[in-house]
Specification:
The complex is a heterodimer. By secondary structure, chain A is mostly helical. Chain A is built from 14 helices and one strand, in the order βαααααααααααααα. In chain A, helix 1 packs across helix 6 and helix 7 runs antiparallel to helix 11. The radius of gyration of chain A is 22 Å and the shape is globular. Chain B is an alpha+beta fold. Among the domains of chain B are: 172 residues, Rossmann fold (3-Layer(aba) Sandwich); 117 residues, Coagulation Factor XIII, Chain A, domain 1 (Distorted Sandwich). The chains are: A mainly alpha, B alpha+beta. Chains A and B meet through strand 1, helix 1 and helix 5 of A and strand 1, helix 1, helix 2, strand 4 and helix 3 of B. Strand 1 of chain A pairs antiparallel with strand 4 of chain B, so a sheet runs across the interface.
């Protein structure tokens, strides 16, 4: 009797045909493995956060909720930035929370992926797998959190009096645009960080600026009251401004205008769309170029 | 005593060259650029856009051509920094090559080291599944093999324990068990066998013999000449990115030892040359049949265990002994000077003596560690001087799996 357990099945290896070995690439040649790896990495991280501490998921929610609480109290009870400009004032809380949750996703996905490839050094140097899996798993992890957080937004909004609308069907489109945008930035940043280690602080500063340059605290009416013409167009070139505003319009209240109505035409939204696509293409190109040599440049 | 061993050949014959090559390496070179400044910053780039970064070039692999046949167990040995791991990573597709090309026929296991990606905060169950997916299985395949992995690792009681609570031995068992489940046709393995306890090591060896029998192609990087000699059909010695020797694993192992230790075989610390107040074992070494000091000998060549004693007191009929152990601590031999009933004589303070035990070398290929000792007349319990693991010797040759390669005469009578 054979003492060692026979745990492998016999292989039809004789039929194999020789093929050339190429260096590592961004996407690899097996999309199923690509997805399976991305999902596994994201799931593992998610699980670690969930079970890592007693309160698990609660902590990932505390930060955006705390920020929301502070901003809400300050800007509705003390600061009154939007007073007088906000139709649907009673939904200000829901609008603020929605924007914060979307912004949290964007920041998690992008700042999280900056260091991701370098932090997974041991994998990169020892296993052949499509390199793009790493930043994408960070985006996917942020997406898991977004999914859970959106439930909180839904509960809060319904509590605040928001009623179901047909335009809720736009949600996949809005979130989809946000994912594409975040992914493009994530690919770009993680590839650049391999060479330029000051990307991290630089990006943190930019993320702060973007936070204030997007309709998060501020209502679009306040923006419309201050900015006109070219400045308004510039403001709406920011993909996050378009995405957040459309979210508020479609998901919370029609009292605030749709993104295209802010400027007055669909064509002006093409700028934001072009930025999303351009960043995605550039990000992918930069990452692909770096992918082959990431293992040796770490 | 008959010096030639005749025994059935347990190892399979090397695959014939006619079988298609599993791995073809065609004049491959790999150069690393080592920038003088490890990381640049974007700020610097912006301030000095035209300054080119200076770098050194490290030629890790220089123009290597090689064919590894399907079903071959191929060893790559070499000192640290000789380029062997780089070559392995090129075959695995982790590094892209600068020149030349590499082709493989068959599915390649993408792992280089055991337990890559293990997360200490997760349970063994989660880690096995994740690791198997990293190694190329689908989630369903990984789950189907989970029980086999745990059974092989003998960790049934600990599957829901977090890895941070595992001992290093348990970790390695888990990692090896997972890796062996990936049914690739070509396996690339970097330094794995020097792990685990003796029983588990034996189990790993069995797996290697099984893989060999099943005709899988294995490329194996190691510092452990014992394993290389034991498993490999062929081996290659690399030095500074080039092939120094390619061929029979025994020759390669000898060349490796020569490269490492030179001709001078000595690793015992010399004792200061002064009249001490204690009897000491000043030196210990091995000699081959020709009476030369060696650190490695071939099987059947004859082996002499030697040590030098300096006496600080007068002793009559002291007992000299030498214990030979394997690296795992199994005692193979205890040689005693009173074995033949002879008295050793009288030694005075200040005398020196060299003790030699000559033994026929039937040891299996491995490293052996010597513990010499001197004791007062009697049973040997009253030791005066004893130096644990003072020096060691490497035996090259057959390794059939036992601890000894006793001469044997095989007869098959057809009835």
């Amino acid at each position: 009797m054979n003492a060692s357990p026979r745990i492998l099945r016999p292989l039809p290896w004789r039929s194999s045909v020789a093929r050339q070995v190429h260096g590592p690439s961004a996407l690899g040649d097996d999309l199923r493995r690509f997805w399976s790896l991305t999902f596994t990495l994201a799931r593992t991280e998610f699980k670690l956060r969930f079970y890592g501490s007693v309160l698990g998921y609660v902590w990932t929610l505390v930060r955006p909720l705390l920020l929301f609480g502070v901003l809400w109290i300050f800007f509705t009870k003390i600061g009154h930035v939007n007073k007088g400009h906000t139709p649907g004032e009673k939904y200000y809380g829901a609008q603020l929370l929605g924007s914060i949750i979307l912004f949290t996703f964007f920041v998690e996905a992008t700042t999280g992926s900056v260091r991701s490839v370098v932090d997974r050094e041991n994998l990169v140097r020892k296993i052949r797998f499509p390199r793009l899996v790493i930043p994408l798993s960070v985006v996917l992890l942020a997406l898991f959190n977004l999914g859970l957080n959106l439930i909180v937004v839904a509960i809060f909004s319904i509590g605040a009096g928001v009623r179901p609308m047909l335009s809720w069907l736009e949600l996949p489109l809005i979130v989809g645009a946000l994912i594409v945008f975040a992914t493009g930035v994530a690919m770009l940043l993680s590839a650049l960080f391999v060479h330029f280690r000051d990307i991290q602080p630089i990006w943190e500063v930019i993320a702060q600026i973007v936070f204030y340059a997007s309709p998060v605290i501020i209502s679009i009416q306040t923006v419309l009251a201050k900015l006109h013409g070219a400045w308004l167009h510039l403001y709406m070139f920011n993909p996050l401004a378009v995405i957040f505003q459309q979210f508020r319009h479609a998901m919370i209240t029609h009292a605030t205008p749709a993104a295209e109505a802010v400027i007055g035409s669909w064509s002006s939204l093409l700028g934001a769309l072009a930025i999303i696509i351009a960043l995605f293409v550039v990000g992918f190109a930069v990452f692909s170029r770096a992918a082959a040599r990431i293992a040796e440049n770490l | 005593m008959n010096a030639t061993i005749q025994r059935p050949d347990e190892t399979l014959a090397a695959p014939e060259l006619a079988t298609p090559a599993a791995v073809t390496i065609d004049s491959v070179s790999k150069t690393f650029r080592l920038p003088h400044q490890q990381y640049s910053t974007l700020k610097e780039r912006a301030l000095h856009p035209l300054r080119s970064t200076s770098y050194d070039e490290l030629h890790a692999v220089k123009d290597i051509s090689l064919e590894i046949a399907t079903g071959e167990f191929f060893g790559i040995v070499g000192r640290n920094g000789s380029g062997k791991s780089t070559l392995l990573k090129c075959i695995a597709g982790i590094y892209s090559v600068d020149f030349g090309r590499i082709s493989i026929a068959g599915r390649l296991s993408p792992f280089i080291e055991l337990g890559v990606g293990f997360n200490m905060d997760l349970t063994a169950r989660d880690n096995v599944i994740i690791n198997a997916i990293m190694l190329g299985l689908s989630r369903r395949e990984a789950q189907a093999r989970f029980d086999a992995v745990i059974a092989f690792a003998e960790l049934e009681e600990f599957i829901d324990l977090k890895l941070k609570n595992y001992s290093s031995g348990m970790l390695v068992r888990l990692a090896f068990a997972t890796a062996i489940q990936v049914d690739a046709e070509i396996l690339l393995i970097d330094e794995v066998l020097a792990v685990g306890d003796a029983a588990f090591q034996q189990k790993c060896y069995e797996q290697f013999f099984r893989l060999k029998r099943e005709g899988r192609t294995i490329v194996f990087v190691s510092h452990d000449m014992f394993s290389v000699e034991r498993f490999c059909h062929r081996a290659m010695l690399m030095e500074r990115g080039s092939v120094l020797k390619l061929g029979d694993p025994r020759d390669v192992a000898r060349a490796y030892h020569k490269l490492n230790f030179g001709q001078l075989p000595h690793n015992a610390p010399p004792v200061a040359d002064r009249p001490g107040d204690e009897t000491v074992i000043a030196d210990a070494w091995f000699e081959n049949a020709a009476g030369e000091r060696v650190t490695a000998v071939s099987q059947q060549e004859g082996l002499t265990i030697c040590f030098e004693v300096r006496f600080a007191e007068s002793l009559s009929n002291p007992l000299f002994a030498a214990t030979l152990r394997t690296e795992l601590g199994h005692t193979i031999l205890v040689a005693r000077s009173d074995q033949n009933g002879e008295a050793s004589g009288i030694f005075r303070a200040g005398d020196s003596a060299i003790v030699r035990f000559e033994v026929p070398n039937w040891l299996t290929a491995s490293r052996y560690v010597l513990t010499p000792s001197v004791a007062r007349e009697g049973t040997g319990a009253d030791a005066i001087a004893l130096v644990e693991d003072m020096t060691s010797v490497m035996v090259h040759g057959n390794a059939s799996g036992g601890i000894l390669e006793l001469p044997l005469q095989t007869t098959i009578d057809r009835l």
